[in-house]
């Protein structure tokens, strides 16, 4: 079913029923504590992304100081990717009304954000890079890179996995 309108003097048709872009409420969590774990994870992600974006101009060179064989442009991409995955993880974890595609994208971002930090932690541990600040909470709050960063990132990955499983968008009937 189409509806007609004019756009810059030309007649344009568009669909009325855009099913893939319709926001739907989130289904109930599987467990009673899944929403609580998601709230804890959201709080940590929000603090992380605010810290990273607060001094983003110092965060980008920090990403370049890892052992990852990247140049300044690639470190800018990695820093932006980290910040964007943390921001886009929030809607799924907050159980906001979303389209199904956005709900899945937000779920993937929620798992991808700590996975990136685990990978950077592995680079720091096995690359023998001793950074005084890992950059997880930006440049203002210092967490040493290495085993501490790897443990914190694995804990975040555990929170992400528990939240994703507890708030999973599809259930068998």
Keywords summarizing the entry:
single chain, 173 residues, mainly alpha, two-stranded antiparallel sheet, 2 strands
How are the elements arranged and paired?
Layout: E1 2-7, E2 10-15, H1 34-54, H2 56-64, H3 72-93, H4 100-126, H5 147-166
Antiparallel strand pairs: 1-2
Helix pairs in contact: 1-3, 1-5, 2-3, 3-4, 4-5
Class inferred from helices and paired strands: mainly alpha
- Integer count of domains: 1
- Which term fits the overall shape? globular
Beta content comes to 5-15%
Q: Can you write the helix and strand succession as a string? A: EEHHHHH
Main sheet overview: 2 strands, antiparallel
Report helical residue fraction. Answer: 55-70%
| Rg over alpha carbons | 20 Å
Count every beta strand, where a strand is a DSSP E run of 2 or more residues.
Answer: 2
Mean pLDDT: 85
Low-confidence segments, ≥5 residues, pLDDT <50?
none
Count of runs of 4 or more consecutive helical residues: 5
Q: Enumerate the strands of the largest sheet in spatial order, edge to edge or round the barrel.
A: 1-2
The CA-CA distance between the termini, in Å, is 31 Å
Compose a concise summary of this entry.
With 173 residues, the protein is mostly helical. Helix content is 57%, strand content 7%. The protein has one domain.
């Amino acid at each position: 079913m189409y509806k007609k309108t004019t756009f810059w003097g030309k007649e344009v048709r568009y669909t009325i029923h855009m099913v893939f872009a319709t926001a739907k409420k989130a289904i109930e969590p599987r467990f009673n504590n899944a929403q609580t774990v998601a709230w804890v994870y959201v709080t940590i992600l929000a603090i992380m992304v605010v810290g990273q974006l607060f001094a983003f101009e110092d965060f980008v060179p920090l990403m370049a100081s890892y052992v990852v064989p990247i140049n300044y442009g690639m470190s800018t991409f990695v820093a932006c990717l980290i910040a964007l995955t943390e921001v886009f993880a929030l809607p799924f974890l907050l159980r906001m009304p979303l389209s199904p595609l956005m709900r899945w994208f937000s779920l993937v971002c929620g798992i991808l954000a700590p996975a990136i930090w685990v990978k950077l932690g592995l680079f720091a541990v096995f690359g023998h890079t001793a950074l005084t600040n890992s950059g997880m909470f930006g440049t203002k709050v210092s967490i040493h890179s290495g085993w501490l960063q790897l443990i914190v990132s694995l804990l975040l990955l555990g929170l992400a996995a528990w939240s994703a499983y507890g708030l999973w968008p599809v259930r068998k009937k």
